[in-house]
Design goal:
Largest sheet: 6 strands, mixed
Distance between the termini: 55 Å
Helix content: 40-55%
Oligomer: single chain
Shape: globular
Number of domains: 2
Order of helices and strands: HHHHHHHHEHHEEEEHEHHH
Radius of gyration: 23 Å
Length: 341
């Protein structure tokens, strides 16, 4: 016989705490009030001059979007899970509320950030909080890039030619336009074709926290954004990258600025690597490989695929994804007792 209890809710919450609720751990270490204030400063709350129902508090919406990125949920699934899931309700502060942000509310909040040009606000706010807590970029920096796929587009040759000019065919109806991503591009990697965008990232070697990112179309080469993601705030002048970033002129210029370049070399059929170059590549491989752990973490959060359409939304989602990774990593460092120094 199933046991009935008047205190079932409290007993379940206690059991969640015993099992180690991820969201509860985030709650203990993250200042969500400061994150919400940064978002409001970058994208002010809409005016209520015309009346209507007041929007949900920004801190609540920040928590909702972080959950969404942490568990890789669509807007529709986010609405459903907020209605259904105890840990989500508790984290956002809606345990006793009959109202929850629906899919339209979530979409509207994101549009508010995009329209205000505040897509990067959460990532910047998280990194400021990391620095305040003492987790500054240390030990050198690792740079790499990853393709982020989006749904493939079915268009004919004529339409493709127009889209390549950053335009939209005139005969497309509004409903069709909303479903076509004219910003995403094709690229090839290891002989396989991919459609979407590219995330270039810089992570510090000591803490494996993401310090800078750049979002572009997938067709743009990794090397174009190398200098854009260099972090001048790292306490070390060492920069690690794989052989895809080889550029003699750039390396010479950066060395002249005081950077120590650790970029693996690549050989060719006519000019194979020397023994000294092979040894150098092996020395670089171990510290450089730590950036792969960062991209693996992003992949676990669903950071290799996007549901959104367009570069503006890709920029928003990937900034929130990187911010979520950093908060999760920060909480792990605190729980593991890895102190900042």
């Amino acid at each position: 016989m199933i046991k009935q209890s008047l205190f079932a809710d409290q007993e379940r919450e206690a059991k969640l705490n015993e099992l180690g609720d991820t969201l509860r751990i985030l709650e203990q270490h993250v200042d969500f009030t400061a994150l919400a204030a940064a978002v409001d400063a970058a994208a002010p709350r809409p005016s209520r001059e015309r009346g209507g129902r007041p929007p949900f508090p920004t801190e609540l919406m920040v928590r909702v979007l972080l959950i969404q990125q942490l568990f890789n949920l669509s807007d529709e699934q986010m609405e459903f899970q907020l209605l259904d899931r105890l840990s989500f309700q508790r984290f956002v502060g809606l345990r006793q509320s009959s109202q929850i942000p629906d899919r339209t509310t979530i979409w509207t909040f994101k549009e508010r950030l995009i329209q205000a040009g505040a897509s990067e606000s959460i990532f910047d706010a998280v990194n400021r909080q990391l620095s305040i807590q003492g987790y500054m970029a240390r030990g050198g920096q690792m740079i790499d890039a990853s393709i982020v796929q989006t749904p493939r587009q079915s268009i004919n040759k004529e339409e493709k030619a127009i889209v390549s000019e950053n335009a939209m065919p005139a005969d497309w109806k509004p409903a069709k336009r909303r479903q076509k991503d004219i910003d995403a591009r094709w690229t090839k990697k290891h002989g396989k074709s991919y459609f979407g965008y590219k995330l270039s990232a810089n992570a510090d070697k000591r803490y494996k926290l993401i310090r800078r990112i750049k979002i572009s179309t997938a067709s743009e080469h990794d090397t174009l954004h190398f200098e854009a993601v260099i972090d001048p705030g790292n306490t070390s002048r060492d920069i690690y990258a794989d052989k895809g970033y080889v550029d003699g002129k750039r390396e010479a210029r950066l060395k002249g600025q005081g950077w120590r370049m650790h970029i693996q070399r690549k050989g060719s059929k006519d000019k194979p690597l020397s023994d000294a170059q092979e040894r150098r590549n092996k020395r670089i491989a171990k510290p450089r490989a730590r950036v792969e752990h960062v991209f693996a973490g992003l992949a676990q959060l669903g950071g290799k695929v996007l549901r959104s359409i367009g570069l503006a939304r890709a920029t928003l989602h990937l900034n929130w994804k990187a911010a979520t990774y950093n908060l999760q990593r920060f909480s792990y460092l605190k729980e593991a007792g890895i102190v900042a120094f």
